[in-house]
Amino acid sequence: MLSLAVLVTTLVVLAGIAAPAIVPHDPFEQNIIDRLQPPMFMAGGSAAHILGTDHLGRDILARLVYGARIALAVGGLAVAVSATLGLVIALVGGYYGGAADAVLMRFLDIQLSMPFMLLALAIVGIYGPSLINIIIVLTITGWVVYARVVRAEVLSLRSREFVVACRSLGGSNLRIIVRHILPNVVPSVVILAALEIGRMMLLESALSFLGLGIRPPNPSWGSMLADGRAYVASAWWLATCPGLAVSFTVLSLNIVADRLRDVLDSSVEA
After folding, report:
1. pLDDT tens digit string along 169-188?
2. For residue 70, what is the domain's CATH number?
3. Greatest C-alpha distance within the chain
4. In the chain, N or C: fewer CB atoms in 10 Å?
5. Domain tally for the chain?
């Protein structure tokens, strides 16, 4: 199962990176004559369009591959920004404690109480759907996961013997945080980030499905699902292909992240 998950993850990443080189069709090119063409393994299908075409005659495979690029970009950037933000906030609040920690944690509680969809509707309603706005929405909702986990570890680490010894020898707070506490919390952040990439990709697809994500005609797996729901009875491949792409990609990322957690946890214990 792990080998298959690694293979699927690798293929998705490579497809997203090398999309222009491996896809013979333009994902934006419309051809009404070839609209709703079935996959090549079905009657009426053609090898020119391996997974068929959509209601505007666009190649499904090309849009899937370019959609992988968007999904990976949104998931990777959202995880990178939210992990950095949550890590910095947790290090400062957890190490210094006191009023700073109390204010930061109350802000975290407020963030946790805010419905994700309401926040997405507010931001998209004001600024409009775009790649940057989707990343902002995902970052605002994602940093709290890292902040809570890292803060708990920092509270435990700041009273450990090596930290007390460094402080007794005149080590500055910055040196203690960067040289002694940060390396001990990085494995937890990496594990969380690996687990969160799949969730961020799923959320991006959900927002695009609702019309709050990537603007058409840019290919997004969520918007492809939305376009295909009207043709489920007559052209099932329009919704099935992006649906399977989302499911298998997120499942594979979670399996790989779960294995990564086992490896990092064992290395920390050792």
Report:
1. 787 888 888 888 888 888 88
2. 1.10.3720.10
3. 78
4. C
5. 1
